Amino acid sequence: MKRDEKNETPKKSVRKINIDDLPKRPVKKNTGSDEGDAMGETKVFRDLPLNDGEDFEFQPDFDTMDFFDEDILQEPPRRTASASRRSIPVEEGDMPEERPVRRTRRRRMESERVPEETEEEIPEKRRIKKLKLTPEEIEERKAVRKKRRSQNPEILAVTYVFAFLFVLMIGYFVYFNAFVSKNVINSAYNVRINSFADTVIRGDIVSSDGTVLAETLVDENGNETRYYPMGRIFSHAVGTSEINQSGIELSENFYMLQSNGNPILNALQDIRGEKNQGDRVVTTLNAQLQEVAYNALGYNNGAVIAIEPATGRVLAMVSKPDYDPNTLVDDYEYIVSEESNDSLLNKTTFGLFVPGSIFKTLTSLAYIRSGTDYNNYHYVCEGQINLGGDEYITCFDQIVHGEENFMDSYAYSCNASFGNIGLSLPDNLLKDTCESLFFNKELPTEIPHTKSSFNLAADDSDWQTAATAIGQGHTQVTPLQMVMIAASIANGGNMMQPYMVDAVETAGGGHRVKKYLPESYGQVLTTQEADLLGQLMEAVVDYGTATSLSGYGYSVAGKTGTGEVSGRGDNSWFIGYAPVEQPQIAICVLVENDEGYYESALPVANAVLQAYLGQ
Which of 119, 133, 444, 451 is paired with 311 by a 20 to 30 Å CA distance? Predict the structure, then answer.
């Protein structure tokens, strides 16, 4: 019998009792310890026939507990002194207060207890107990769990990668549909579009005032012929559809081969095997202004482009030499056989030319941005500037301009003064200024074009730097880019994206299918910069090199230029806008290989401005 260490008693002889010798209703002896009682400590039976001084103990076997009769676990009734069996002598204090015997399974022995478990371990322990796993199986499960935990980071990383790729794919689909799909659909290499012509008669192209610029004629036999009523005047702007597809014929090819007219009528025509009339394209081009610009160029080669500063609408686009779109199929072989023949080239968008003095607008902007006190600029022009040795930059006709401030230098287009300004600019400032206005970059427009180029390194010679500052050197520009710069100045520094198509309508104009709205690229100049450049351009017309544009019922701001081309004569330039107070038109004129210098472009610009402003 296990006793309390504090209450030592003499040892008694103990006799081991077999389970078969147990009586029907045993009585347990409490050892005085709740813990011992709960854990199944030594059990003493009082009413067994024992010899004097004998006691017995019984250590229960938990594996056999399931076979116990439940009645055995109940407390037996007390026996009287007259009972046939002798009572076991129990000393006072050895018998604690009796407690009711629990009817649940006995717990594990104290020695078999497991240390307290954490909240995370309890569920797993319960699973193990329920499954009755062996220690080897438990260790194996732990190893598997550990391996899974080690693999989780890789699985998570792969999940993130696939999620990112999915989002990227969705983003590309959105981008493709919004910005790329139209170019793919309208590509000259997309032969599937031509299959639409089997069921649709190609739609018309009209000007902003409704003048037909291109239409499809159908004879009695159903043969179709594309006809251009205005002929050469719109050859580059409208383009052609049958060969060397270009211009609006190319950009709106898909829409002109769609028929969004009356669906019932279209269905009936399909049943009868007849073609439906394609949708028509309404352009931003002003037919009257286009004709004036075309005639003003006369026999000169060159380009004229005019846009609306506040919206970017292209009002006129002329390029010479030109071609007759009605006979291009027959003339094509002859045209392309001549290397010098560039009549198929739209010079307003794809022609690259030396800008001459109109580039001084960019040099002036860089000088303003340099932080120099341009209001106190002072220079004495002697007709040329010496750059060391035999290298000089001379003014036009070696004119001596004398004392000049910044505005005078721009108004008189003084090469010596602007060569001096170019040399004073910090390294790369002129390049950074030009690139902020899309030199060496694609312009923000859907009109197909080539990039203007600017090439000046920080370690270039003084002569190269000065020549670049006055618009010579290796700089080349398109008329489209220069008119966009002029329009941005007129629009307070906000550059609008040029566009040539106003809307797509059903045949006859009964229903609008698509409407093109003006889009702004954003501020390319601050309002202060635009205002200062505008004042410089006004001075050019007021008392500078473009006084022939003054004296009309509207004020003009502009800049003249002469691009010197070695061995091919000079190119005459003009960029500007009018009226100054509320600009309605911005224009760029280029006259190639002319001996009249900048003066040749002024009559062309004057004719266009007067035609548009109603003078």
Answer: 451
Tell me the mean pLDDT in the region 589-606: 85
Q: Which residues pair with 498 in a beta bridge?
A: none
pLDDT, tens digit, 9 for 90 and up, residues 370-387: 999 999 999 999 999 999
**277, β-bridge pairs:** 201
pLDDT at 96 over 70: no
Q: Nearest to residue 30, comparing CAs of 108, 106, 97, 75? A: 97
Distance CA(523)–CA(538), nearest Å, equals 22
CA distance 433 to 426: 11
Confirm if 513 and 580 have CB atoms less than 8 A apart.
no
CB 213 within 8 A of CB 234: yes
3-state secondary structure 395-412: CHHHCCCEEECHHHHHHC
Show Cβ contacts of residue 292 under 8 Å, excluding neighbours closer than 6 positions. 316, 607, 608, 611
6 bridge partner residues = none
- Average pLDDT, whole number, for the chain? 83
3-state secondary structure of 523: strand
Read off the pLDDT band of 99 (50, 70, 90). low
pLDDT (mean) for 308-316: 98
**Contact criterion met (CB below 8 Å) for 200 and 194:** no
Angle subtended by helix axes 415-424 and 462-469, to nearest 10: 120
Mean per-residue pLDDT, 123-150: 71
Q: State the pLDDT confidence band at 215, using cuts at 50, 70 and 90.
A: very high
The Cα 141–Cα 139 span in angstroms is 5
Domain ranges of the chain: 1-113, 354-477
How many Å apart are CA 299 and CA 306, to the nearest integer?
A: 20
CA distances from 299 to 302, 362, 479, 540 (A): 9, 31, 19, 27
C-alpha distances in Å from residue 401, one per residue of 133, 374, 395, 424:
106, 18, 9, 20
The model's pTM: 0.72
List, in sequence order, every residue forming a beta bridge with 594; answer none if it has no partner.
Answer: 570
Residue 356, Ramachandran bin (φ over 0: left; ψ between -120 and 50: alpha; else beta): left
- Secondary structure (3-state) at 7: coil
The fold of 354-477 is Beta-lactamase (3.40.710)
The first and second tokens of residue 38, run together, are: 């709960």
Cα–Cα distance, 219 to 234 (Å, whole number): 25
Residue 247, Cβ neighbours under 10 Å: how many?
27
CB 307 within 8 A of CB 487: yes
Mean pLDDT, residues 220-241: 94
Task: Supply the pLDDT for residue 561.
Answer: 95
Kindly state the tokens that stand for 276. Answer: 């439906």
Judge whether 417 and 441 are in contact, CB under 8 Å: no
The pLDDT tens digits for 322-376 are: 999 999 999 999 888 887 789 999 999 999 999 999 999 999 999 999 999 999 9
pLDDT over threshold 50, residue 28: no
368 CB-side CA count, 13 A: 22
Query: For residue 441, how far is the Cα from the chain centroid?
Result: 17
Res. 245: pLDDT tops 60: yes
